[in-house]
Amino acid sequence: MLSDLTFNELQMYVEKLGLPKFRASQVFDGIVKGKSLDEITNLSKEIKEKIAQDYPQYKIIKEFTSNDGTQKFIIEFGDGKIVECVLMKYKYGNTICVSTQVGCRMGCKFCASTLNGLERNLSAGEILGQVLLVNRKLGGNAKERKITNIVMMGSGEPLDNFDNACKFIELVSDEKGINISQRNISLSTCGLVDKIKLLQEKQYNITLTISLHASLDEKRREVMPIANKWSIKEIIDSCREYFDKTGRRIYIEYTLIKGVNNSEEDAKRLALLLKGLMCHINVIPLNSVKERNLLGVARSDAYKFVEKLESLGLSATVRRTMGEDIEGACGQLRNKILKEKKDDRTGC
What we know:
Elements: H1 7-16, H2 23-32, H3 45-51, E1 59-65, E2 71-76, E3 82-90, E4 93-97, E5 101-103, E6 118-121, H4 124-137, E7 149-152, H5 162-172, E8 185-189, H6 193-202, E9 207-211, H7 217-223, H8 232-246, E10 250-256, H9 264-273, E11 279-285, H10 299-311, E12 316-318, H11 336-346
Helix pairs in contact: 1-2, 4-5, 6-8, 9-10
């Protein structure tokens, strides 16, 4: 797919087709602006026919708007697969939460994205397409972007799709493209230690976010199957190495689950675990997922948890919940629309 290619790679592509080199600029401009092939007016019908099979087929098929202004977009790809991405509006700009896989195989018990397992990885261009389509929807382009920040926290585990996630970071931050600073990109992982080590070697200026959610391995194993492979100590050690290598502060995601990880003792253990690590903790009251029997805590209890962490010398805040009424909040993204389409076809 042409959105997987850098500008230089696209130039080589058009030359192999026997087309003048300048055609790459026209195709690249259309891709970056989120246009369909039919909307590119400076290409002939003959040229369009030559590149049609490789031109991006993704499109927004549905959107929802929350009471708080958060928007959720349903993106469909050429093979009919669907993902969700979420636009969150802040005073400092617009942040898009992108998906990196169709579904997820990590199996976290508090997350809707993993309910049906992993269907397939997204290509780098398909991840990029979410940014380009929403940027266009908001009236933006490459020079006047409406998207200012990116969080790779939608459906899927980015480091389980390592090569495409990395290529996406390079594409979206390319000065010839939409040119979003790597400092404005966050990648969230449940803790694939081997891939964290590979990521640090890339020397990106992105923010690494760890979905930790427990301070004891046995508690983490209750809600996160990945804990059977990597211990908390191994994850935190990899975070220390990442900071030493990149100088980028680590963010820790900690979802409060009632009766599992929300006690004062949990806070004390977490403080001891993170002592000396340059990090900030985002405390998140669990968002509801109807298929799960886990319970969240009141926001007042989340603030008390944060107060305890701060008293122990940690930097922490309660994350603002956005888009919960449209199932767009943390842990709620799923392939619900795709299921509805299948049910319509089968008469269920």
